[in-house]
Amino acid sequence: MTNTSAASAASLSASGLPVSLAGLPFAKGHGTGNDFVLVADPNGAHELAAADVAALCDRHRGVGGDGFIRAVRSEHVPEGRVLLEGAPEAQWFMDYRNSDGSVSEMCGNGVRVFVHFLLEEGLAELAEGGSLTIGTRAGLKTVTRTAGGYAVDMGPWEFIYPDHAAAKSMDTVVNADGLEVPRPGLSVSMGNPHTVVALAELSELAVTNLTQAPSVQPEPENGTNVEFVVPAEPLVEDGVGLVTMRVHERGVGETLSCGTGACAAAVAIRFWAGAGAPDDWAVTVPGGVVGVRFLTGPDGREHVELSGPAVLVARGTLL
């Protein structure tokens, strides 16, 4: 995390946050415990520096969050303008940053909270069963309002190293503190990179130390999120696959939930389970349960849908 104490005293407000943030309205929200600081910036007037984002997300000196979400109209963001050319309905862009201020492509829990924030701010309307198209750095995401929250078409999944995945059903070696020996992993892209490791017992999952980033070899070019997953026994009940997961998020650390990580975990376990594995999954994370479903997308490819709640818990103005 960026150390804001290096900033000069003149650049800090009385609260200890950068003066540039003073007076900025914000909200705090979460999806199954994966929490975010949200700012409405329709006209693109508040593109925050990485240090500002890190200061906001600091859990001791800032608001605190796993990430930062800026709601900005797509026309004010270069990536958003590109998306508008083919999808003029994508009026809103989710500018997502990790808690250390680094730019991230996508966040599955975050995009649900993002849409809920738009509705609560009066910036969009969406009846139950209706859908909204959102621009992200991982492309367009269609979010549908459900009775219990929101469902997001996360788009198609891909193996990061497809040849190795096909030949060996694994493509990386992962070391994590608390596990006695290295474990094989499978690298999955959900628009952002993930490495999934299967563990045999919940006791192994409990002793895995995710305060430190696991070592992944080879590591994708821009780093990776690492999911440790325990399949249930039996794996399938009433047609639904059941797994339990913990995750170390790139640029953040361990989080209570990771939407794209839950999707990647279901992709990997379903692949390892082989023919007859279900299309519907319930992924238990420390912050709750999210649903993952495999379906054919409008492009004819297999897509992954993520579903779960979204909650706003606070609003305020930075001092």
Key descriptive features of the protein:
319 residues, alpha+beta, 19-stranded mixed β-sheet, disordered N terminus
How would you characterize the overall build of this protein?
The protein is an alpha+beta fold. Helix content is 18%, strand content 40%. The chain has 6 helices and 19 strands. The protein has helices spanning 50-57, 78-86, 108-120, 162-168, 202-207, 259-273; strands at residues 25-31, 34-40, 67-73, 92-98, 131-136, 139-146, 149-156, 158-159, 172-175, 183-189, 193-198, 215-217, 225-237, 240-249, 253-255, 280-285, 288-296, 302-308, 311-317. It has a 19-stranded mixed beta sheet that branches. Strand 2, helix 1 and strand 3 form a beta-alpha-beta unit. The two termini are 21 Å apart.
